[in-house]
Amino acid sequence: LKDIPALSCHPYGTYVVQHVLEHGSNEHRRRIVQVVVNDIRILGAESHGCAVVSAALSYGLDADRSALAQILLREPGLLVFLASSRHGHVAALRMLDLLVGKELEEARNRLQAEAETLRNCRYGLIVLEYLEQSDSNQCSWSAFCRAGA
């Protein structure tokens, strides 16, 4: 487990970690998500690490996924950074799908406050489009993806 952060940021190692998150035992998933939580600033700031964060938000156990989404929200500037990056925007969308109530509203407000920044990048536009669609019909991230985003 001590090598998870390094593997997560490696161009090929990231696939190993993502594979374990998707197909590993519940204990392996829980332990990897805990490493992701502990190193969220490092992993969230690195392109391959963002893919692992996204996988943790997709394949971790339900309680772990929710806790990770809440931790991402508490990290200053990380949500907007994720929303504007290639692999990070998927993590941001999955995070929005996991949050509820005041936390979801806070995340939406942060993203909308940085709408100008997000409009200037390809992946930020996708997140803004999701926000607009979810405002109008409460679509989920998976429904948004099936619609062709």
Give the topology:
Elements (H helix, E strand, L loop, with lengths): L3 H5 L4 H11 L2 H13 L1 H5 L2 H13 L2 H13 L3 H6 L4 H11 L2 H13 L1 H5 L2 H16 L3 H6 L3
Helix pairs in contact: 2-3, 2-5, 3-5, 3-6, 5-6, 5-8, 6-8
Descriptive report:
This protein is an all-alpha fold. The chain is 79% helix and 0% strand. It has twelve helices and no strands. The chain has helices at residues 4-8, 13-23, 26-38, 40-44, 47-59, 62-74, 78-83, 88-98, 101-113, 115-119, 122-137, 141-146. It starts with a helix and ends with a helix. The model has no long low-confidence stretch (mean pLDDT 90).
Please write the string of helix (H) and strand (E) elements.
HHHHHHHHHHHH
Q: Strand content of the residues, in percent?
A: under 5%
Rg for CA atoms: 14 Å
What is the tally of helical segments?
12
Identify the overall geometry: globular
Number of strands: 0
Helix content: over 70%
- Distance between the first and last residues' Cα: 35 Å
Question: Class by helix and strand content?
Answer: mainly alpha
In short:
This protein is an all-alpha fold and 149 residues long. The chain has twelve helices and no strands.
Which key terms come to mind for this protein?
149 residues; mainly alpha; single chain; 12 helices
